[in-house]
Amino acid sequence: MAHATIYVGFTVPQLLRGASRIFPTHSALVVMRHSDFCYCTVNGTIKSKRKMDHLERTANNFRQEVISQAKVCGITSETETVKRLRLAIANKDFTFKAGQWVDFFIPEVSVVGGFSICSSPGLLEREGILELAVKHTVHPPAHWIHTECTLDSEVALRVGADLHGYQEGKGNGYKMGTVKLYYSAKNTSELLFKKNILGLMNAFPGKITCHFHVTQQSSQICKELQPHVTEGRISEKDLEKHVSKDTLWYICGPPPMIESISKLLSNIGVPRNCVFFEKWW
Which of 105, 116, 187, 263 is buried most, with the most CB atoms less than 10 Å from its CB? Predict the structure, then answer.
């Protein structure tokens, strides 16, 4: 049976880590906005607006025993506020699954960071490389990455996150469904991984589509993006046409956005058990 999956949120790594791994038999509809990176929960309830430390917030989450040393082997700017960090992993026993995050230990920083992985498990298997995308904030680990981290800087990583509904890929024998991505940001320069997304659309025509939304665009939109960009927020009208009993909805974003979209989905008749989201800082 084919399903539609709607993913509402701010980050794209989960889609990029392998649409074939995450949506092997489902039709996917994804709604996104751009922001910080987070850890995954399912059908959770946001009860407090107090910002908690990463270790405190994830104290009850699963963690692997392996802590691996890692060396920074690449730093690139995805946007004006987000850096992509490329890390060479020392421990051959270090593994992860799509959707997990890492505890990020910096020798000279007492606060432990927590960042989502934006590369695929396959890249780690093939090259021993893991990538993180980190937004610039005053949080000490993120601030260090943006202001002090250099090539050959050494850190340590540990994988964590409880995965709900995760399914391993079954090879090439499955029937791929469709993915419809709605992704919102302030402007097109803040749309992370847009080139990767356009590449996926070209690689899987009719299977993966994307609707970019911008809310404060002041410059001209480039020709490549113009057919896919709408000015204004993601609306009920955008989403209601995708409602069906086979639709799964994934939301990713800060608490107010998750609460707003969750309420919108409830209003248009989406069952709670079909809605999945990530819980942010």
Answer: 116
Is residue 159 helix, strand or coil? strand
State how far Cα 5 lies from the chain centre. Answer: 15
C-beta contacts of 80-83 below 8 A and 24+ residues apart: 80/189, 80/190, 81/135, 81/136, 81/190, 82/133, 82/134, 82/135, 82/136, 82/192, 83/133, 83/134, 83/136, 83/145, 83/146
CA angle 98, 161, 75 (to 5 degrees): 60
Q: What angle do CA 266, 31, 125 make, to 5 degrees?
A: 125
Q: Is 198 helix (H, G, I), strand (E, B) or coil?
A: helix
In this predicted model, what pLDDT tens digit does every residue of 67-123 receive, in sequence order?
999 999 999 998 889 999 999 999 999 999 887 899 999 999 999 999 989 999 999
Measured from the Cβ of residue 93, the count of other Cβ atoms closer than 10 Å reads: 9
